[in-house]
């Protein structure tokens, strides 16, 4: 790591070898240095801009840049900023800038490091989505008019909070166009809203309609639906509009559907959920107590509710098939689906249905709902156990083959050398054979050591993982490789936030960090000082450690399927055993993680370690 009391004593030659787009600013906001990639991307010459006021390079962004630079100098880490290329004349590509404090070896902040990365499509969509949500929330008025926005390309529908209230759903409800259509009363209202949306998209026709819809709790209300298309480059890309509850202004009062429960023998006695559904309309007429326990809702929540709002999309796609089975056979075969009850618990349900006659002579469907969550878990555990046993058997067989092959090779070598030694009478030649035997013995010991390391990885799988500070573990490893770093003039650039933790086995984490750092030093380019950059990305299920170097790299087109193989080496290095990456891969997988590599010959390598958060 860099050690100095002030920025002026730093040697910044290393930045010329950085394979990333980086620029360094001092505490006076003056540009100190920049990597070749950054200069190329922005078409700038370091000799011309060095020492200049950095904000003057981007006058259109002066306020945003100044604020973020100040925050970084206050110690805040990983401040993000979206750079729009159209606003400036230096670059034709949009990007994300990451601002981080630049510290000396004593922990003093002496400037700011800005790392520039290409913006991904996912990041653009997230920014656009947040902007849309903000606009929708701002447009709700005193008249309780809700706003909505439909993106045609992404097929995403966004509602303001008022629209959620009008439909009677929770604020975290995720709407789709098809779901929204199904709230409107079946018949003219639903046909009208579908036709209006299609005409807006296809022919640019706006609409203003008064329609009836059924809220999630079964209440029927009147709404005023207004929509109009929005065009980009002559093509309809979005449809926006408003929705207002106008029930109080309509002469016809709002009436909650009156249902006459149809009672059947043993309806409340069976140990599983039952529901009676009108065959013609799909409305729920009655449910038993076991059904309410299963769903965690009161009975009143379901009375009058259309059954299609209860089942998920998987069953909806089968609705025509199930209806045909009822017509032909008077029942449908059992189907399974996952239901999220009011307590936010996911339940595996098996549903069956039988056609019955109601008390008034109408056709109804008697549906049974059985909670099979425990059964599914047992089946899943059994499958996992079988798969694990099969995998262990395969690993054992592979290990047996490996041991047999490796030891047979050594045994053959020993046998030949001993025969040669026995037949040789000359002292000089016998001495040579003895040296060869000693060398063969060392190689055998190294092979056995490697096999023992592999066994140690496999036998530690069931140890409990702990939440470990990544920087504390890295500090220990840095001390252990300090001699190597000094000998090779290597540098480690640590961009890991101080608060970052990973779930891991302590011994494994130390081994993984040591392996990846020593590999970066071991396979360095002869004409470059080794530079190692460590950074962190957070994903849904993983904390991802990225280790980037400027070494020899690997030809992945040639060796891609062998990188993590046992005894596989790709460079003429006398210290290479071809076992380090194999063990590292096994250690990551033993902790339910994974490892990937990105590399090109003579352009360094980036290894990514995915630490599972569970």
TrEMBL record:
This enzyme's EC code(s): 2.7.13.3
Q: Which Gene3D superfamilies match?
A: Histidine kinase-like ATPase, C-terminal domain, PAS domain
Query: Domain Histidine kinase, which positions?
Result: 402-614
Kinase is among the record's keywords: yes
Query: Which reactions fall under this protein's catalytic activity?
Result: ATP + protein L-histidine = ADP + protein N-phospho-L-histidine
Instruction: Please name the InterPro entries in this protein's record.
Output: HATPase_C_sf, HATPase_dom, His_kinase_dom, PAS, PAS-like_dom_sf, PAS_4, PAS_fold_3, Sensor_kinase/Photoreceptor
Keyword field: Kinase, Phosphoprotein, Transferase
Q: Name one Pfam family in it.
A: PAS_3
Which terms does the record give in the GO molecular function aspect?
protein histidine kinase activity
Signal peptide annotation: none
Q: What is this protein called?
A: histidine kinase
Native species = Maribacter ulvicola
